[in-house]
Amino acid sequence: MTIRILPESVAAQIAAGEVVERPASVVKELVENALDAAASDIRVETEAGGQQLIRVSDDGHGIPAADVERAFARHATSKISTIEDLTHLSTLGFRGEALHSIAAVSRVTLTTRHAGESAGTQVRVEGGTVRAHRPTGAPAGTVVTVEDLFYNTPARLKFLKTTTTERRRITTMVMNYAMAYPAVRFALYHDGREVFRSYGAGGLSDVLVKVVGPETFRHMLEVQPQPPARPDLPAVEVYGYTSSPSQNRANRSHITLFVNGRVIQDASLAYAVTQAYHTLLPKGRCPIAVLMITLPPEEVDVNVHPTKAEVRFRSPDAVFAAVQRAVRSAVIDQAPVPSVRLQGFSSTHAPGWQDRRESLLRAGQRRPAARQQDLGLELETPGGYGQQGTERRRESVADDEAFVASLPEGPERPSQPRTLPMLRVLGQIGASYIVAEGPVGLYLIDQHAAHERILYEQFMAEQASRQPAAQHTLDTVTVELPLSAASLVEEHLDVLSRLGFVLEPFGGGTFRVRAVPTLLADRDPAEAVRAIVDDLESGAEPGQATLEEKISRRVCKTAAIKAGQVLSVTEMQALIRQLERCQSPHTCPHGRPTLIHISAEQLAKEFGRT
Ligand code: ADP
Ligand code: MG
User: Fold this and answer.
1) β-sheet bridge partners, residue 141
2) Measured between alpha carbons, how far is 602 from 57 in angstroms, rounded to an integer?
């Protein structure tokens, strides 16, 4: 075959494939054009899932008569003129490809009147060829009607999903724009039936209620902009709503992200949202979230993908960290406030969450809670859990019963699914490892790593239920730090106090230690404070762990039973019962394994039995 240049019509159809993948892509492009034209009212109508007809009408500024036909040319745009313009883009469109592409694969009728002109224009383009162009009377604004989508590209037509699926995609698309532009009125009709409407009242919450429904919305937490983690990072503002942990879904498709008013797909940011819930969501579940991420235009490159659905960030880690921080703080700060609850009255919070909280509270508070229940009142004391737990843990040195009691028992935490098979303790090796038998072989458990994991999950759950970390108060302890460390500590007093460390600066690098997390009650407080200074110095790791997480891990590491400590069978059994119900029982919070499994087959093989 000789090499030839493709006819313009074929080239246009090929290029159109990138922009117009399905009816929803047409809706997206037309709605973006309406928004770019400063419309305050946008109406979307479809027939047969958009394949027969899509009509988008707006009251924006319209197109001057002289420009109308040119709008259909390839790379025709009024939005940028130089490549530099891309660095401070304020419009959704800029590629000048949409009208051209849509017209190449359908029959388009565009009626428009520019706000400054008295007569309107109507142009009809079929398969890329202009069929009609005439003046017409029309209200200011633009109406684009797209009929018979893909009529001349049968291959594409075949790839369309059912009408219902295409309709649903269009609905999601319109809802997304309605959320991103709450000051604009949107209405969507499928086959003449109104399926969605927003009132342009101006608040994301007004639209979100209509998108997720009032029942789900009740469980959404507001995500508020957080001050940047470090002053040298780009200003990334994250605003929106995220679900309380009880409202979760099987996949990330309910996480909707907008960057500077654009809906984007970004697996890493969706992961940041899920990650922010850490151990609060059951394994494999995802939250519902709608987040508006705003950052200086020069920090994002939107010209990565023909449909502009993906963007590239100049500092992806900073964006990741900002999203995670904002969501995490919403989840922790606004988790149901501890309150006195009358027995028999339904709680205002989701049952899952409440159950979890209560089982956690009960776990550490068995006796006091029972007493309160006699009165018909249940006092959800903030911090009570840790306090109780540790007091018992301290007695445990002498008394295994107490130690066992300090560990919330499996059956008392029914909302915690078992993550390991039931293990039977056989003994201890080297005062460091527990030997246990399970249904399918032998297990060796690192007692320190396992206890660290257990404490960490308890500590994080406590944090998430918004109980300020339980504190063990002290009177006369002071700690002296090098000046650089002291200023770091002063800077993070609030984070530290959330975690249970209450420090009073005395000047000259000296602090009075007013309280430490109860988990550390039997450790040297000055030592404990010095240990966390290391974590403050190394800072948060964007995309990996927040400072709080790091310090929490440190606290748990310090508090966990050490290698070299001889344990009784009862103690070991209690430890393992706890580990069996950890969300991530296989590693300690620092990622080291907590257990080694040797299967029955492996054993048989080693002994030459197979
Ligand atoms: P882009 O949006 O990337 O500029 P399009 O092909 O989508 O490219 O549109 C081409 C041009 O047509 C736009 O730049 C704009 O000037 C004009 N246009 C399209 N739709 C509208 C509309 N609804 N209202 C006003 N002008 C419009
Ligand atoms: Mg456009």
Assistant:
1) 113
2) 69
Do the Cβ atoms of 453 and 407 come closer than 8 Å?
no
More confident residue, 141 or 492: 141
Tokens of 139: 């209200």
Residue 569 near residue 403 (C-beta atoms within 8 A): no
DSSP character at residue 541: B
pLDDT digits (tens, 9 = 90+) for 599-608: 888 888 888 8
pLDDT tens digits for 47-76? 999 999 999 999 999 999 999 999 998 888
Residue among 558, 23, 51 at smallest CA distance from 550: 558
Phi, psi dihedral angles at 544 (to 5 degrees): -120, -60
- β-strand pairing of 312-313 with 300-301: antiparallel
Ligand 1 center to residue 298 CA distance, Å?
A: 23
Q: How many Å lie between the centroid of ligand 2 and the Cα of residue 62?
A: 13
552 residue type, one letter:
S
Distance 93 CA to ligand 2 centre (A): 4
- How far does Cα 373 stand from its chain's mean position? 37
Query: Which residue's alpha carbon is at the smallest distance from atom 23 of ligand 1?
Result: 34
CA distance 483 to 398: 40
| Distance in angstroms (rounded) separating the CA atoms of residues 375 and 371 | 7
- The angle subtended at Cα 574 by Cα 570 and Cα 576, nearest 5°, is 115
CB-CB contact of 323 with 272 (8 Å): yes
The residue whose CA is least distant from atom 13 of ligand 1 is 77
Ligand 1 contact, 79 CB (< 6 A): yes
* CA torsion, ordered 405, 406, 407, 410, to nearest 10 deg: 40
Say how far apart CA 163 and CA 38 lie, in whole Å. Answer: 31
Residue pair 397/391 in contact by the 8 Å Cβ criterion: no
Cross-strand bridge partners of residue 264: 257
